[in-house]
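Today's session is about reading a structure prediction critically. Students often jump straight to the picture, but the first step is always the sequence itself: look for stretches that repeat, for charged clusters, for runs of hydrophobic residues. Only then move on to the predicted structure, which in these notes is written as discrete structure tokens rather than atom positions. Here is the chain we will use throughout the hour.
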Amino acid sequence: MRRREPCLLHGEYRPRRAHNDIFWFARTLNKAEILVGLNLCREPRLWEWSGSGIRLISSYLDGEQDKVEGPTHLRPNEGVVIKLNR
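Below is the predicted structure for this chain, in token form.
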């Protein structure tokens, strides 16, 4: 995925405030922005981000790339990578 998305490899790392057991950050490069959200809890949590994009991957490996809008529910111990629409 890093080879397909230069933003992940070369983008500026921008940490976000953790909330509700969700650790998350953004990577930005030019006009591209990718969010990474990690549910650090054994229970579902609401990830409070705003915007819309494409879910590139989930740690559950159970879905194809699909459209998502924030806020988003994350399953227990789930991590997701979202490419924002610009």
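Discussion point for the tutorial: Helices lie at 6-10.
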